[in-house]
Each structure stands twice: as C-alpha cells, then as structure tokens.
Write a structure and sequence with these properties.
The protein is of the alpha/beta class. Helix content is about 35%, strand content about 20%. The chain has a six-stranded mixed beta sheet, with helices on both faces. The protein has a four-stranded antiparallel beta sheet with strand order 2-1-4-5, with helices on one face. It is globular and about 55 Å long. About 40% of the residues are buried. Bound molecules: adenosine-5'-triphosphate (ATP). The site of adenosine-5'-triphosphate has 12 residues, from helix 3. Adenosine-5'-triphosphate binds next to helix 3. It comes from Pseudaquabacterium inlustre. Keywords: ATP-binding, Cell membrane, Membrane, Nucleotide-binding, Transmembrane, Transmembrane helix. It is found in: Cell membrane.
C-alpha cells in the first residue's frame, strides 16, 4: 500500500482506511515516507459510464513489489469479472489477494500484462476517476474524530444529510446511531463514543454505500463478532454488494457460499475457480482452506 502524496485530497476516503489497513507501525512509517510509483497519464482516457457494476479484467498479470525485484507477488494472473458479479478471493497468507486489490486501485503498476476497469487500462485513466469508481471496505474500519454523520459523509463529502441517513439505513447502522446520546451528532473516535467492531464496520459500509461506486473492494474482517453484530454486518454487506461488482477477500463462510465465483490463489497464482460446493467437492486447496477457516469437513 502506497500513499499517493500528490492526490491526498482526492484519495481522502481511501487514505485513512489504508493507513489503518496498513496495520503495523513500521509498515506505516514505510508508507508515510514512500513516494507514489504511479502517476497520472499525460492524456487520461475517460472511463465509460456503467450501470449495474464495473467490468474488471486481469490479463496475463505479472507483478513484483518495487522493493522485492525477482520475487513475484503475482504471476500469470488472468481473471475476467463481469459487471455485477461477486468474486471472492481466498488463499493462504501471501497468496496475493490484497495485491490484486492494490493493482486495481493502481497503487502500483504491473510489470507484465494489464489490469482494466470497464475496458480501460488502469494506467490510461486518471487516478481520480479510477478511484472515484471504486469503494473500499477495509478489514479494520477507521473511525474519525468527528460526528457519526460526518464519519459517513466522508464517503461522499457533498452528500446531503438525508443521503447520509439513507446510506446508514441501508448499512443497518441507522438504529444504533439513533440510540447514541446525540444521534447523528454524536462525536465518535478517540475522545468520543467508542463503537463496537460490528458498529465500526457498518459505518464503513455506509460510507461505501454513500459513495455508490460501481466497483466495491472488500477486505472482510477476520475478527469474530458476536452473533447479532455478525448478522447485521452480513446483511449490510449483502446490500452493499447488490447491483455492483464486488471483489472480496473472503474470511466468512456466508460470503464464499454466496459468491458467484471463488478465486483460489496460492503463491501469486490463481489455482482454481468455482463455486463453493464445486470447490469443496474437488477436494483441493480450497477444501483444505475451507476446513481450516470455516470448520468444514474437507471432502
Ligand atoms: P494475507 O492473507 O496474509 O493478507 P495476501 O494473499 O493478501 O495475504 P499479499 O499481501 O497480496 O497476500 O502478498 C503477496 C506477496 O507480496 C507476499 O509474498 C507478500 O509478502 C508480498 N507483499 C505484500 N505487500 C508487500 C509490500 N508492500 N512490499 C513488498 N512485498 C509485499
């Protein structure tokens, strides 16, 4: 993950979440001092208007991080995601799942092949238009030191209060926000009301829904929530995934079961693609992962 120093304003939505998503402190320091390896093209190609979600294509993608030449994070990755499709990425740690999402956001450029969104190579679009088309729900959602309303409005700064509330309702966040001491005006964050993990996730989902992007990138939380929270977050995610294209790094059984396709990754390669039942029946890497992650019996 690299912070784009030049377009922080454009990226403000992505920025905070990425800082948080980056996690480890040393990583963060690395990020803050990093310069973006990507730049806007001299003559950006406009992304076409789309309805019902973006089309995404990875074509012969080979990629290594600039700091690790000769150590490919992705090799020969081919993937076609249809508009509206929900694709779950699964695989062991280091398989390349987050790298896929980072390339879609063009935090780095590939060394081989190409990544296109709605038919336009991500290197040919302006960073602002590319990222404007993409919503992100990170594993660990950032809550800013401001009101609940402003926390959600972050998803689309020009949104009206009514639009913020509609997004909160869609993300099943409205009810708990209304019960906060000052409702939508309640101050959150470090010196404000502390939210539960599930509540933070729903704020983050509401932000993404307010932005209403044709492409949603989701990094599902690994940490367990209580059953009630889990149900609400799942319901919110399902709403968020409807009518748009979603790529989700999946950690939940419910998510992989509902995905249109599951992409199984290992060592930077796609090793299998299918639906949950198919892949379990095949008894390969997916079946083993499923038995570890979801407690399913390997076939
Ligand atoms: P996890 O489930 O642990 O998040 P992942 O499937 O998302 O794993 P990636 O984070 O995409 O895997 O990592 C793919 C490879 O790239 C790994 O070998 C990883 O160590 C390496 N990698 C990831 N991020 C960076 C980075 N910023 N700089 C250098 N190497 C990186």
């Amino acid at each position: 993950v690299i912070i784009l120093v030049s377009s922080v304003a454009v990226l403000s939505e992505v920025y905070g979440d990425l800082l948080r998503a980056a996690g480890a402190t040393e990583r963060l320091m690395e990020l803050l001092s990093a310069r973006s390896p990507v730049a806007d093209p001299a003559r950006p190609v406009a992304l076409p208007a789309v309805q019902g979600g973006s089309a995404v294509r990875f074509e012969g993608v080979g990629f290594h991080y600039p700091s690790r030449p000769g150590m490919p994070a992705l090799s020969e990755v081919n993937l076609d995601v249809r508009p509206g499709e929900t694709v779950a990425l699964v695989g062991p740690s280091g398989a390349g799942k987050s790298t896929m999402l980072q390339l879609l956001l063009r935090f780095y450029d590939v060394q081989h092949g190409g990544v296109t969104v709605d038919g336009v190579d991500v290197r040919d679009a302006s960073l602002a238009s590319l990222r404007g088309r993409i919503g992100i729900v990170p594993q660990d959602s950032t809550i800013f030191s401001t009101s609940a309303l402003e926390n959600i409005r972050y998803g689309r700064p020009e949104a009206t209060e009514a639009e913020v509330i509609a997004a909160a309702k869609a993300a099943f966040a409205h009810d708990f926000i209304e019960k906060l001491p000052e409702g939508y005006d309640t101050y959150l964050g470090e010196r404000g009301v502390r939210l539960s993990g599930g509540q933070r996730q729903r704020i983050s989902i509401a932000r993404a829904m307010l932005k209403n992007p044709p492409l949603l990138l989701l990094d599902e939380a690994t940490s367990a929530l209580d059953a009630e929270s889990e149900r609400m977050v799942q319901a919110a995610l399902e709403k968020a995934m409807a009518d748009r294209t979603t790529l989700v790094i999946a950690h939940r059984l419910a998510t992989v079961q509902k995905a249109d396709r599951i992409v199984v990754m290992d060592g930077g390669r796609i090793v299998d693609i299918g639906r949950h039942d198919e892949l379990v029946a095949r008894g390969g890497l997916y079946a083993r992962l499923a038995s570890m992650q979801f407690g399913l019996e390997a076939a």
